[in-house]
Amino acid sequence: MTGGRQARHAPAQCAAEGAVQLGAEQNQLFSKAGEHLYGVFGDARVGLIDVRDIAAAGAAILRNPERHEGTIYTPTGPESITLGQAAEDITRTLGQPVTYVPQSPEQTRDGLLQAGLDEWSAEVLAEYRVAYGSGWGDFTNDHVARIVGRQPRTFAEFVHDHREHLTNA
Predict the structure, then answer these.
(1) CB atoms < 10 A from the CB of 144, how many?
(2) d(CA 110, CA 122)
(3) Which end is more exposed in the chain, N or C (fewer Cβ atoms within 10 Å of the end residue's Cβ)?
(4) pTM here?
(5) What are the pLDDT tens digits along the chain (169 aa)?
(6) Cα–Cα distance, 153 to 90 (Å, whole number)
(7) CA neighbor of 108 nearest in space, from 169, 29, 17
(8) Buried b (16+ CB within 10 A) or exposed e, 10-30
(9) Can you name the residues that pair with 46 across neighbouring β-strands?
(10) Distance in angstroms (rounded) separating the CA atoms of residues 169 and 163
């Protein structure tokens, strides 16, 4: 997100039949299918951010672009967590067991291809798996709070707000 300028962003597309797609938090970088949570983070920690917080930050920038001119933001959520911890949050909220199933980059690519994703996108997400799995996303910052004037939502808050969707996935 670049203040006062258009940022280039190509959201990852991930499809798995019968799954609710979540991720970053809703950037399709992980999905829940039944009792399993799959994702491209490996066992690494990631500063997950709710798309609603990204939208709020973007709206604030658009309302006052001069204040943000020349500033580059990398918004994150308030905590850096593993998908194992995310599965625990989902389990607590839903009262149903959910287990994170870590996959290798190859398993990620192959599973996405089997789910019908095109080869290029599956390869890109497998590369995300390598980057995130090496700790690339393990950081948080105060960018959302500085822009919006409040803390970003936690993953547990996201799960609570979307529990009806997660229950049926």
Answers:
(1) 26
(2) 8
(3) N
(4) 0.78
(5) 544 433 322 223 223 323 333 444 444 567 888 899 988 888 999 999 999 999 999 999 999 999 999 999 999 999 999 999 999 999 999 999 999 999 899 998 998 899 898 999 999 989 989 999 999 999 999 999 999 999 999 999 999 999 998 887 7
(6) 15
(7) 29
(8) eebebebeebbbbbbbbbbbb
(9) 81
(10) 10
* Cα distance between residue 72 and residue 82, in whole Å: 26
Residues in the chain: 169
User: Checking DSSP bridges between strand 36-39 and strand 30-33, what pairing results, if any?
Assistant: antiparallel
C-alpha distances (whole Å) from 54 to each of 9, 27, 97, 147, 151 are 13, 11, 29, 10, 12
Give residue for tokens 């994703």: 117
R_g of the chain, CA atoms, integer Å: 16
